[in-house]
Amino acid sequence: MDDRVRPEDRIVITGVGLTAPIGNNLSEFRENLLAGKSGVRKFETRYMGEVMAGVCDFDETRYQKKKERRRGTRAGSIAIYCAHEAINDSGLDWDNVDKSRIGIYIGVTEHGNVETENEVYNISQYGYDTKYWSHHHNPRTVANNPAGEVTLNMKITGPHYTIGAACAAGNLGVIQGVQMLRLGEVDMALAGGVSESIHTFGIFASFKSEGALASHDDPEKASRPFDKARNGTVCSEGGCLYVLERLPSALKRGAKIYGEIAGYAVTSDAVDFILPDHNQQAECLRQALKKAGLQPGDIDILNTHSTATQLGDIEECKAIREVFKDNAVWINNTKSFIGHTMGAAGVLELSGNLPSFEDGWVHPTINLDDLDPECDVKNLVANEPKEVGEVNYILNNSFGMLGINSVLIVKRYKD
């Protein structure tokens, strides 16, 4: 450890709570990633009929009463589930934790579209008579809703808010938690991202009008990053929250440490509403490595953002080749299994790689039958998991619309 780093500035992950189309906890999620199991299936959505989507199947009433669920939102329900699972996983003595010193920082791509679409559809059945508009609409659609629902459910009185950062938001939730801990604003953070996006027809319609919505006769093969036959994004729902705390706190209570936050960066392309730019993606990678005090060759696993759009995959691969050159980093992709979980993507996809610190395996990119030469990057793990031995650093790329880029690096915890 660098002697100049104060112990209290070292932030570690001590709990993981998640729901994904292939698992409702980290162990299940990891098992299915190593087994090559896809979670994409056919999904019926309003006005569009059948589409491909990643759908979560968790128990909404495990931590909520039915009445609370009806009043709240799908995003809030996902957040509540993940928060409880993370706390349970952390081994905290929850009854004796100071709830005023916990911060809730949740990344979202968007929030409120689902509820607004549903309300407009509802009043359309009554001649657009607004007296049938729900009085729950406003608290359901405010941007802080998912984080706020967690505080209501768990009686947390510390700060809560969401971070709107498109598909980079999951990483941004974690980054915000790290920053608030280092500033001393909180003593613990529940941080990450959630997405309920599949419950709005608008996201599917918009991707389709862009020519970027995935289709395939076999839903399990619909999400195919880097493949020549890729034809767009599979929209998915999901969520993941971490318990983050300062290292001395974690050591004092003998917590299991999944990993330590090593570095991060956020940049903007400033180029286009939708089209990505590999130059700024590469710059984001460089900044994150610099903040972590690392060289490209120090990274063991790089989890890519690639969503199976034609240009997006190519631009990211250009950035990776530019920064990592011939360094032997193992590269994989999680969206090939679960589709794109939007605001949850970064933190959820990072989580699927965290067990590599213990087992030394890298999960693959599946559905990669015919590699696009423009997506050819060194050490891309394809279709079968690979045992690589000791893993010390994992890097996650997450990029979003309006040109927001985020990179998060986690390292194996060592004294």
Please tally the helical runs, counting DSSP H or I stretches of 4 or more residues: 14
Largest sheet: 10 strands, mixed
Tell me the domain tally: 2
Helix content: 25-40%
Rough outline: globular
- Catalogue the unreliable spans: none
Mean pLDDT: 97
Strand order of the largest sheet: 5-4-6-8-1-9-15-14-10-11
How many E-type strands? 15
The level-1 CATH class of the largest domain = Alpha Beta
Order of helices and strands: EHEEHHEHHHEHEHEEHEHEHEHHHEEEE
Strand content: 15-25%
- By CATH, the superfamily of the largest domain comes out as Thiolase/Chalcone synthase
How would you summarize what this structure contains?
The chain has 415 residues and is of the alpha/beta class.
Topology:
Blueprint: E1 11-19, H1 26-35, E2 40-45, E3 49-54, H2 66-71, H3 74-90, E4 102-108, H4 113-124, H5 137-141, H6 145-154, E5 160-164, H7 169-183, E6 188-195, H8 201-209, E7 235-236, E8 238-246, H9 247-252, E9 259-268, H10 278-292, E10 301-304, H11 310-324, E11 330-333, H12 335-338, H13 345-351, H14 356-359, E12 361-362, E13 386-387, E14 393-400, E15 404-411
Parallel strand pairs: 3-7, 4-5, 4-6, 10-11, 10-14
Antiparallel strand pairs: 1-8, 1-9, 2-3, 6-8, 9-15, 12-13, 14-15
Written description of the protein model:
By secondary structure, this protein is an alpha/beta fold. The protein folds into two domains: 7-252, 3-Layer(aba) Sandwich (Peroxisomal Thiolase, Chain A, domain 1); 262-411, Thiolase/Chalcone synthase (Peroxisomal Thiolase, Chain A, domain 1, 3-Layer(aba) Sandwich). Helices cover 33% and strands 22% of the residues. The chain has helices spanning 26-35, 66-71, 74-90, 113-124, 137-141, 145-154, 169-183, 201-209, 247-252, 278-292, 310-324, 335-338, 345-351, 356-359; strands at residues 11-19, 40-45, 49-54, 102-108, 160-164, 188-195, 235-236, 238-246, 259-268, 301-304, 330-333, 361-362, 386-387, 393-400, 404-411. A ten-stranded mixed beta sheet has the order 5-4-6-8-1-9-15-14-10-11, sandwiched between helices. The longest helix is centred in the first third of the chain and has 17 residues, at 74-90. The chain starts with 10 loop residues before the first strand and ends with a strand. The mean pLDDT is 97.
